[in-house]
Design a protein that fits this description.
By secondary structure, the protein is α/β, with parallel strands linked by helices. The protein has a domain at 100-236: P-loop containing nucleotide triphosphate hydrolases (Rossmann fold, 3-Layer(aba) Sandwich). Helix content is 26%, strand content 19%. It has helices at 100-107, 124-137, 147-150, 162-181, 195-203, 219-225, 230-235; strands at residues 62-67, 70-75, 80-85, 88-94, 112-117, 142-146, 185-189, 210-215, 257-259. Strand 1 and strand 2 form a beta hairpin. The longest helix is centred in the middle third of the chain and has 20 residues, at 162-181. It binds 3'-phosphate-adenosine-5'-phosphate sulfate and adenosine-5'-diphosphate. Residues 120-121, 124-125, 147-148, 151, 160, 165, 168-169, 190-193, 228, 230, 239, 241-243, 247 line the site of 3'-phosphate-adenosine-5'-phosphate sulfate.
């Protein structure tokens, strides 16, 4: 008798090609490390509740793919697709057998992007933190991409002129897409003043996976809050190109949510 421990998520096992009855649908897929002497067709496995166990062996050279509710082992050859992308040529997309759906199932949540846009001082960071806390308390995994924070690292080379803001948003959009692909609820909290840049980020994701939230707070209120004293500096001409003062902000036309 072999006892399976620490399997995440709970799975059931069976050897491909051994079972004679009708194929069981693959509802749960999980992974475990298991030392066994040899694959034995006579091996019997059960997991209670009438659930069926199916085991697919994965090696370093092969990966497991789930298609049409059936598992199969595919070789590296199937995984390769040549691509040319912008300035990069001869690049190959490496596909993993564990996909977004698997990760979402593991996390028991849907990966998506909540994109919070608005003026400085409109409450983007406060809302992002509140959302993160509320979801955390419900057992949901989130990650905040805050404009200020990202400019300390990944985007430290970018200024606040229009083309740098566009590049800032493009990179944050791509990172947000990766987080969503990881199954995480990604909360982007960035001024993102240009509609075109926000729309480009929306285009990166499947329909419904990009939720745009507009902090619909008038400039006067943001300026009165001025928690960092930046509006004061901008009014004094000590910061040039400050959003809402001498730089544009384009409010969303068709966002999913407006917060005032
Ligand atoms: N010129 C200018 N305009 C607007 N904001 C400025 C500027 N200079 C510095 N800051 C600080 O940078 C934060 C905004 O960064 P973002 O990456 O979100 O901006 S953008 O989306 O690229 O427009 C912003 O943070 P928030 O106040 O949280 O919005 C400011 O603290
Ligand atoms: N809903 C709200 N009502 C009143 N004040 C708020 C609200 N949300 C945020 N604030 C305050 O407004 C200021 C700016 O909030 P913040 O989240 O830092 O904005 P942003 O990230 O858009 O710059 C902070 O002092 C914060 O406490």
């Amino acid at each position: 008798m072999v006892e399976l421990k620490a399997v995440r998520p709970a799975i059931s096992c069976y050897f491909s090609g051994v079972e004679s009855g009708p194929a069981a649908p693959f509802r749960k897929v999980g992974f475990l490390k298991w030392q066994m002497p040899a694959l034995s067709p006579s091996l019997g496995l059960s997991c209670g509740n009438n659930a069926r166990l199916s085991l697919v062996q994965a090696t370093e050279e092969s990966t497991v793919s789930i298609a049409n509710d059936r598992a199969s082992v595919i070789s590296g050859e199937n995984l390769r697709q040549m691509a040319t992308n912008g300035k990069a040529t001869n690049i190959v997309w490496h596909k993993s057998s564990v996909g977004k759906l698997n990760r979402q199932e593991l996390l028991e949540q849907k990966g998506c992007v909540l994109w919070i846009t608005g003026l400085s001082g409109s409450g983007k960071s406060a809302l992002a933190c509140a959302l993160c806390q509320a979801l955390y308390s419900r057992g949901k995994l989130t990650y905040i991409l805050d404009g200020d924070n990202i400019r300390h690292g990944l985007n430290r080379d970018l200024s606040f002129k229009a083309e740098d803001r566009a590049e800032n948003i493009r990179r944050i959009g791509e990172v947000a897409k990766l987080f969503a692909d990881a199954g995480i609820i990604c909360i982007a909290s960035v001024i993102s003043p240009y509609r075109r840049d926000r729309d480009a980020c929306r285009e990166l994701l499947p329909e419904g996976d990009f939720i745009e939230v507009f902090m619909d707070v008038p400039l006067q209120i943001c300026e009165a809050r001025d928690p960092k004293g930046l509006y004061k500096l901008a009014r004094a001409g000590k910061i040039k190109g400050f959003t809402g003062i001498d730089d544009p902000y384009e409010p969303p036309l068709n966002c999913e949510h407006g917060e005032a």
